[in-house]
Amino acid sequence: MRGKNIIIGICGGIAAYKTPQLVRVLKKAGANVRVALTDGGARFVSELALATVSQEAVYRNIFPPADTPETDYTHHISLGEWADALVIAPATANTLARLAAGLCDDMLTACFLTLRPGKPVLIFPAMDGQMFLSASVQRNIALLEKQGCLVFKPESGELASGQSGTGRMPEPETIHTHLEEALHSTQQESPLQGRSIVVTAGPTREKIDGVRYISNYSSGKMGFAIAGAAAKRGALVTLITGPVHLETPPGVKRIDVESALEMHAAARTFFQSCHIFIGAAAVADYRPAAPYERKMKKEAEEIEITLVKNPDILAEFSLQKSTKQLAIGFALEMQSDIDNARKKLESKQLDLIAFNFFDRKTSGFEVDTNILTLIERSGKTTELPQLTKHDAAERLLEVIEKQYGSKSPLHKNSR
Ligand SMILES: Cc1cc2nc3c(=O)[nH]c(=O)nc-3n(C[C@H](O)[C@H](O)[C@H](O)COP(=O)(O)O)c2cc1C
């Protein structure tokens, strides 16, 4: 906790009366604490008390008051960038909705949006028990959790309304413990922090004519999970994706493409500069040689479509990569064809290949789980159990972290 920069976001709930004590507890533990107070919060706890215990001005409005000469007009960005963690306590139903919707109408919501990827956000909702259980509040909590926020269920006990139930904000000492744990788990700096990682995902569409294409069943879920897991580790992630119905993971730069040739063109621009290239897309091996611009008429009994080979994007990167770059691929094969994956690893000179098979129930395209076998260049093979694609992505990233860390021990200075 010592030397860590912590923002405490305080909203308009009765539990706000506990927050000067929370500031004191964190200051005593050695943290630098700044407070972002909502207008609602200011109705319950005084700005003066918070400024006094934090020994810092309290942040409230994005727009500086007209009568005070302001020299820094970018607090709404720099405060979030400054923070190692954001603690929102108490979090009201109203602010949960603002955060989930991505609003940016005060300093607290601005901090939430500008916090660096990988920095923990701890949210402590506190409100009437019935309000907490309402469908809207639960939906907003689910959305925030999906974005990686740590949302702590309120405690049970006597509520300010005089009733008993779930809704209480934990005591400052308990919040301190949760914060320490969250900081500890993100503290071990990943060797991927600040590194440029390109992930390809999804299927490609290969045009037959103006209205038809050849494609495959790839959903993009595995590649998106990998991109999200890499961004959480502080990597600068570019996700080049074919047509999918997925939300972009937080902190990830997304480039949408359609065909293998478009994916190839987008990927090539990163071949020199990226540190790690992860080919998780199901790029079509072939494309129609001469796609028809307009709609083909249903006249002939038979038609022939000549297919030509598409570029092998991952192999092209891998065969020209420098000794400091890593190339990671996927091999979707029949369950018994793990040797094919090994051959691909060799022929494409990959650093790691993730073998998975295809049964459409537990592994492969479309489903939410995967069973990966990770084969490294050294021959080391790790068989993972059936995991959600998010957990499988975490495990893959752990292996990549080890490989990248050993390839580039002075990773901060390497290309
Ligand atoms: C006496 C009183 C107590 C309140 N307590 C809570 C509370 O514990 N939790 C909550 O979500 N809203 C509570 N509210 C409602 C919020 O103050 C209101 O929704 C406000 O707009 C929140 O603003 P903010 O989210 O910007 O801080 C309370 C309102 C009053 C008048």
Automatic annotation (TrEMBL):
Gene3D superfamilies documented for this protein: CoaB-like, Flavin prenyltransferase-like
Species of origin: Chlorobium ferrooxidans DSM 13031
Protein task: Catalyzes two sequential steps in the biosynthesis of coenzyme A. In the first step cysteine is conjugated to 4'-phosphopantothenate to form 4-phosphopantothenoylcysteine. In the second step the latter compound is decarboxylated to form 4'-phosphopantotheine. Catalyzes two steps in the biosynthesis of coenzyme A. In the first step cysteine is conjugated to 4'-phosphopantothenate to form 4-phosphopantothenoylcysteine, in the latter compound is decarboxylated to form 4'-phosphopantotheine.
Keywords (A to Z) from UniProt: Decarboxylase, Flavoprotein, FMN, Ligase, Lyase, Magnesium, Metal-binding, Multifunctional enzyme
Gene from which this protein is expressed: coaBC
Residues in coiled coil: none
Domain of life: Bacteria
Lineage: Bacteria, Pseudomonadati, Chlorobiota, Chlorobiia, Chlorobiales
Protein's recorded name: Coenzyme A biosynthesis bifunctional protein CoaBC
Pfam families: DFP, Flavoprotein
